[in-house]
Amino acid sequence: MTHYILQTCIGWTNSHLHEFVLSGKRYSPHDPDFSDEFEQLDEQRVVLCDAMGQESRRFDYIYDFGDNWQHVVIIEDPYAGDSEQGLRIRRIGEENACPPEDVGGSGGYADFLAAIADLSHEEHSRYLGWVGGSFDPVRFDITAVSLLLDGIKI
Question: Where do the domains of the chain lie?
């Protein structure tokens, strides 16, 4: 569930593997071929707040091992979403647009941004076509994300 919530907040499409690191332990979807080798625990068998412990309010989220997106997730207030209607998930911060899926990690994203900003760049048209015609790297629609989060039942 946590992975799905983060994918919704970030704007990605759940197209790649991921892992969480909480209190020094690694959690991921169960894969019998790799779980023992990488010392990963099955994320379906743990509740986030139990794995974090009472004092911790942060964990690491790694997505797309090829692009290697690494995020530090901070829980500002674990009780802020409690209401008479039940628990509500909220993203309270916003900074920029999510990099496109499969852009090539931070280096590929920098190249992508340079290409779409330069009309004479040889990859300009191809990159814009790849992302549907336009991309604003500073646009983030927190209202749209909040509506999507409202649809998630915990």
Answer: 1-96+140-154, 97-138
